[in-house]
Amino acid sequence: MKEDAINAKGGIGETIRTIIYAVLIAVVIRTFAYEPFKIPSESMLPTLMIGDYLFVSKFSYGYSRHSFPFSLAPISGRIFEDIPERGDVAVFKKPIGEPVDYIKRIMGLPGDKLQMINGVLFINGTAVKRERVEDYVDHDRYGNARQIAQYRETLPGGRTYLTLDTTIQGLMDNTDVYNVPEGHVFGMGDNRDNSTDSRFLAHVGYIPMENLVGRAEIIFMSLNGAAEWYEVWNYPFAIRWNRILTSLN
User: Fold this and answer.
1) Ramachandran quadrant class, 55 (left: phi over 0; alpha: psi -120 to 50; beta: rest)
2) pLDDT at 103
3) CA dist., res. 110 & res. 194, Å (int)
4) Cβ atoms of 123 and 112 closer than 8 Å
5) What pLDDT shows up at residue 168?
6) CA angle 90, 93, 96 (to 5 degrees)
7) Which of 53, 72, 117, 147 is deepest in the core (most CB within 10 A)?
8) Annotation marks residue 222 as catalytic
């Protein structure tokens, strides 16, 4: 009996140690390697959809206090800092107001001048190449379809992506010139008329490099809303199979 009790205590202790090790390994991976992120809004349509789950590489831009859970690390600035490339899809802590996670495409780098003129993005005085492609077909919660004008933008380095333009007279289709300060970047949503991003200086504004969390790399799961992540029995009807393993860079 006594030996059984000792063995039982040893088994419980071993289980607790295993759990602690697993948690520590998960924290290390999440902090220094990859962190999962769920898309909560339509601001990055058509690139990202509500219900997409993706991995964000934490090492792409170096590390700051925001690389750690709850931003608790006593770090000032960034360690092993690397500036994003124009066109990267990046997760960052919103610099104004509550520091929640945002995800946008990095369009402006330190020292750049950006401006929207009639819905066209100008970078350092030159219009980004923009060509009309087939309409994006969206469906509301009731299954009703709507068509949205879709464009393919091509950056000077050749990087391409799709954007949506809901209206030709959107709130931010014509703006003043944005001068990106040193140590900051400028993020925009691909869904240009439905994205609160760096164009709104009082709500998001220029993004300090310190606030970057990481670069979005790949979609590993996508659910259409018919099932929560834990409702595995509904996955066959809820998974967007064509989006799994879609690379974002």
Assistant:
1) beta
2) 97
3) 25
4) yes
5) 79
6) 125
7) 53
8) no
d(CA 130, CA 155): 9
pTM: 0.84
Closest CA to 116 of 160, 168, 48: 168
Say how many residues make up the chain.
Answer: 249
Number of Cβ within 10 Å of residue 119's Cβ equals 19
Q: Among the options 43, 60, 67, 222, which is catalytic?
A: 43
Tell me what pLDDT residue 92 has: 96
Tell me the backbone φ, ψ of residue 105, rounded to 5 degrees. Answer: -95, 130
Q: How far apart are the first and last CA of the chain?
A: 61
CA distance linking residue 54 with residue 245, whole number of Å: 9
Distances, alpha carbon 76 to alpha carbons 67, 144, 185, 206, 207, in Å? 12, 49, 18, 18, 16
Rounded Cα gap, residues 170 and 193, in angstroms: 6
What tokens were used for 5? 């009790």
The list of the chain residues with pLDDT below 70 reads 1-11, 13, 21-33, 70, 72-73, 140-142
Residue 94 is among the residues annotated as catalytic for this protein:
no
Write out pLDDT tens, residues 149-197: 999 999 988 999 999 998 878 889 999 999 999 999 999 999 999 999 9
Residues in a beta bridge with 152 = 131, 162
Neighbours of 235 (CB within 10 A): 13
